[in-house]
């Protein structure tokens, strides 16, 4: 096709576009712009050389990307990590590898920890092929601070320390740690800079693609890309690039060749093209444009927008480590960013790329289907390390169950902990202390309920998980422990599939579980005492290194069979020290629901209430249903003993149950129905609206007392509600819901409300599902 013909066709295309409605003209603006560049960028002499087979490139172009600058960007550069790249990891040689960095006053960050993060990031997002690329080399700055003798000693010290750090790394063939270039960046004639340059050139010569002939048919598209870059086109759709490809007649690439071309250009860092479903419809022609996009939300305070509502988005992000989709899109609607992403489709693409590369972490259950998440964790913002008392072994010691996932063949990617935390956040909210969410660098503290906390943290090659009850390990629900394990194991499996796919190791038949081992255990002598899960299944106890014998009963909770509703024949009931514990209000609810009316009066007599007292309770609370009356009877028994300064112990309950031949009912007070976890969704972690709470009572039955207790209210507060709204069930229920929302010690989420309604078995779940989960 001649240039004149091509121009004529473009003019015809413009005329056709002009006849379209204004909205469609805007949508096609980018394509018309790209088409214009096509006509101007393919020179006849180059095309002739291509056709004659004489086109030859004698210069190997190379891109240099400098990641220096704001510390907020330290954990975002996986956007620019390319498989064929060479990475120079630099650190301040004047302060050493293990001295805390002043730039990170919130936590104990060192050059060593940041270099480790970088090495793992580079190797997590690059393929692990047989060739040597990518390659990682190290350079220390500030050599001008030292005299020659000290400089040599320092260089030797850093070389030894880096060798010790990375020589045993799983992918050490990509890491050059036998030499550290100690440079003086203030001297343009610095000899070490020249040595570093020569070394980088030498590494480039080792690339397996060096000297390979590339298809001549690639050249027109490469020229088009170059021309579009020069004209400041930053993103185009894959369909537009295909359109350009098809305009080259003799040099058209077929679909397979076209896909290969894009992947190769991506591996060289010329463009960003992610060949994954959902993010393969666009091409970033200027990777540096991603830096500007990141600046919209990953930036230091001095660069925040002046508009108050936008500055507040940044403040909330820095305080809580998360951002909503709507807030992110508000930031992207600012002029500098809107020019890069001109419509919603571009914004949605960039959002998915940031999720893919862990710049944003999406809360989801890792099941099939598109996520509807509206909140995203932003790991690069979270730099504060967990406080010293985050895992105080003296405090959590005998109240904690532990499970550890040990990576066997992979370095732990820095974002892995945040992906696991995000998975847990779909079900359990972050705990807040002093108004701040307990989200830290590679760790978090979550509220399972009012009495149980969940800690997740990365320790070396281990993902450590701790489930702690406020009173005793004996009161941990085996159903809850098993659900946490299932949730995190599924998440870890799917996360590793992603990283293994990046390594090029993943296939449909690959058993991902072989890349990690599971250990379970307890805290003993202020240390975590772990044993392989496979061993726990085969024995009733194990002896740790402190010569202490531990029962496997509680570590087995992690793999408890939730389908078995009854105690096994081998069950011996509560242990003696567990029977010394005081039952809480939720335990009374479980008992009241289980014990049949036909034996309940006898059970009360064995507890210590009289028949007359029971009859009085029946009369007073007759309008509160059978469970409500039984609950108030147990409450009256508790008050009666407390008035006499007598202890209220589980042993008393156990003895009374034995007398009515219902001894195993006590075991059931720890059982939980966890089936709602299967429908857990990030939308359910929102706080329910007042308008919804106002309508909810019309959809549930008479469960005022049970619902109040399940939501964490005290008997006193529930009695107050019943007195203030005498014989008005709907008003009582609404008052209970309002009190819960206003006074809950943990975030009063929709999911938490659904769990409470499920436990009362009185309706309302269908209403909430329709209200919050309906498409």
Short characterization:
By secondary structure, the protein is an alpha+beta fold. The chain is built from 31 helices and 18 strands.
Query: If you compute it from the alpha carbons, what radius of gyration comes out, rounded to the nearest whole angstrom?
Result: 32 Å
Q: What is the third-level CATH name, the topology of the largest domain?
A: TATA-Binding Protein
Termini separation (Å)?
50 Å
CATH-defined architecture of the largest domain: 2-Layer Sandwich
The named CATH superfamily of the largest domain: Alpha-D-phosphohexomutase, C-terminal domain
Shape: elongated
Major sheet description? 7 strands, antiparallel
Percentage of residues in DSSP E strands: 5-15%
- Report the uncertain regions: 1-32, 35-45, 366-370
Structural class: alpha+beta
Helix content: 40-55%
Number of strands: 18
CATH class of the largest domain reads Alpha Beta
Query: Helical element count?
Result: 31
As laid out across the biggest beta sheet, the strand order is 11-12-13-14-8-15-16
User: What's the mean pLDDT score?
Assistant: 82
Number of domains: 6
Model description:
The longest helix has 26 residues, at 478-503. The strands form 6 sheets. Strands 11-12-13-14-8-15-16 form a 7-stranded antiparallel β-sheet. Strands 1-2-3 form a 3-stranded parallel β-sheet, with helices on both faces. It has a two-stranded antiparallel sheet with strand order 4-5. The protein is 43% helix and 12% strand. It folds into 6 domains: 3-59 and 212-287, no CATH class; 85-205, Rossmann fold (3-Layer(aba) Sandwich); 291-381, no CATH class; 393-559, TATA-Binding Protein; 576-670, Death Domain, Fas, CATH 1.10.533; 675-772, Death Domain, Fas, CATH 1.10.533.10. It is an alpha+beta fold. Helix 22 (597-607) runs parallel beside helix 24 and helix 22 crosses helix 25. Mean pLDDT is 82; it is low at 1-32, 35-45 and 366-370.
């Amino acid at each position: 096709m001649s240039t004149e013909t091509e121009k004529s066709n473009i003019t015809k295309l413009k005329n056709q576009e002009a006849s379209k409605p204004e909205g469609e003209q805007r949508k096609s603006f980018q394509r018309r712009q790209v088409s214009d560049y096509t006509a101007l960028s393919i020179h006849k002499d180059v095309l002739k050389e291509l056709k004659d087979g004489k086109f030859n490139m004698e210069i190997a172009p190379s891109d240099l990307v400098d990641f220096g600058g704001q510390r907020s960007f330290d954990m975002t550069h996986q956007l620019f990590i390319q498989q064929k790249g060479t990475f120079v990891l630099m650190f301040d040689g004047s302060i050493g590898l293990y001295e805390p960095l002043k730039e990170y006053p919130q936590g104990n960050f060192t050059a060593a920890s940041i270099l480790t993060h970088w090495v793992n990031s580079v190797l997590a997002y690059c393929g692990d092929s047989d060739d040597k690329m990518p390659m990682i080399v190290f350079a220390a700055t500030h050599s001008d601070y030292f005299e020659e003798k000290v400089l040599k000693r320092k260089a030797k010290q850093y070389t030894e320390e880096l060798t010790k750090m990375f020589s045993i790394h799983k992918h050490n063939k990509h890491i050059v740690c036998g030499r550290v270039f100690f440079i003086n960046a203030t001297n343009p004639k610095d000899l070490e800079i020249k040595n570093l340059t020569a070394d980088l050139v030498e590494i480039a010569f080792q690339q397996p693609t060096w000297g390979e002939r590339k298809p001549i048919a690639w050249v027109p598209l490469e020229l088009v890309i170059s021309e579009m870059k020069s004209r400041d086109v930053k993103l185009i759709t894959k369909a537009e690039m295909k359109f350009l490809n098809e305009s080259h007649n003799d040099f058209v690439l077929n679909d397979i060749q076209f896909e290969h071309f894009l992947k190769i250009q991506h591996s060289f860092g010329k463009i960003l093209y992610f060949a994954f479903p959902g993010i393969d419809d666009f091409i970033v022609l200027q990777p540096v444009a991603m830096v500007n996009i990141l600046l919209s939300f990953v930036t230091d305070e001095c660069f925040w927008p002046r508009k108050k509502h936008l500055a507040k988005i940044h403040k909330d992000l820095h305080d809580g480590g998360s951002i909503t989709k709507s807030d992110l899109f508000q930031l992207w609607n600012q002029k500098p960013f809107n020019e890069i992403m001109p419509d919603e489709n571009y914004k949605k693409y960039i959002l998915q790329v940031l999720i893919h590369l862990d710049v944003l972490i999406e809360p989801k259950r890792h099941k099939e289907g598109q996520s509807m998440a509206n909140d995203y964790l932003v790991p690069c913002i979270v730099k504060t390390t967990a406080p010293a008392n985050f895992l105080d072994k003296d405090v959590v010691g005998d109240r904690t169950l532990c499970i550890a996932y040990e990576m066997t063949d992979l370095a732990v990617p820095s974002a892995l902990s945040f992906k696991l935390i995000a998975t847990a956040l779909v079900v359990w909210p972050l705990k807040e202390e002093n108004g701040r969410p307990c989200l830290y660098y590679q760790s978090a503290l979550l509220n399972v309920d009012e009495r149980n906390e969940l800690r997740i943290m990365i320790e070396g090659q281990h993902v450590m998980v701790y489930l702690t009850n406020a009173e005793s390990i004996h009161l941990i629900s085996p159903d809850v422990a098993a659900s946490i394990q299932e949730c995190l194991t599924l998440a870890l499996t799917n996360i590793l599939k992603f990283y293994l796919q990046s390594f090029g190791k993943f296939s449909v038949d690959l058993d991902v579980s072989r890349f990690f081992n599971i250990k379970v255990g307890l805290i003993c002598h202020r240390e975590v005492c772990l044993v392989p899960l496979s061993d726990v299944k085969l024995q009733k106890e194990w002896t740790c290194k402190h010569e202490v014998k531990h029962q496997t009963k509680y570590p087995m909770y992690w793999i408890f069979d939730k389908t078995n509703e009854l105690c096994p024949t081998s069950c011996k009931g509560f242990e003696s020290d567990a029977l010394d514990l005081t039952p809480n209000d939720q335990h009374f609810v479980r008992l009241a629901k289980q014990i049949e009316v036909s034996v309940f009066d006898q059970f009360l007599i064995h507890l210590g209430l009289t028949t007359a007292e029971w009859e009085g309770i029946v009369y007073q609370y007759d309008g509160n249903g059978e469970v409500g009356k039984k609950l108030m009877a147990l409450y009256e028994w508790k008050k009666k003993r407390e008035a006499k300064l007598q202890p209220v112990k589980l042993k008393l309950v156990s003895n009374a149950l034995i007398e009515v031949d219902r001894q195993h009912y006590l075991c059931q007070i720890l059982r939980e129905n966890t089936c709602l976890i299967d429908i857990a969704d990030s939308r359910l972690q929102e706080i329910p609206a007042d308008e919804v709470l106002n309508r909810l009572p019309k959809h549930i039955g008479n469960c005022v007392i049970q619902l109040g207790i399940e939501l964490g209210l005290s008997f006193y507060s529930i009695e107050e509600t019943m007195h203030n709204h005498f014989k008005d069930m709907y008003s009582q229920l609404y008052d209970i819901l309002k009190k819960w929302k206003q006074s809950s010690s943990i975030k009063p989420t929709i999911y938490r409300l659904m769990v409470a309604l499920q436990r009362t078995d009185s309706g309302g779940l269908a209403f909430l599902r329709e209200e919050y989960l309906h498409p």
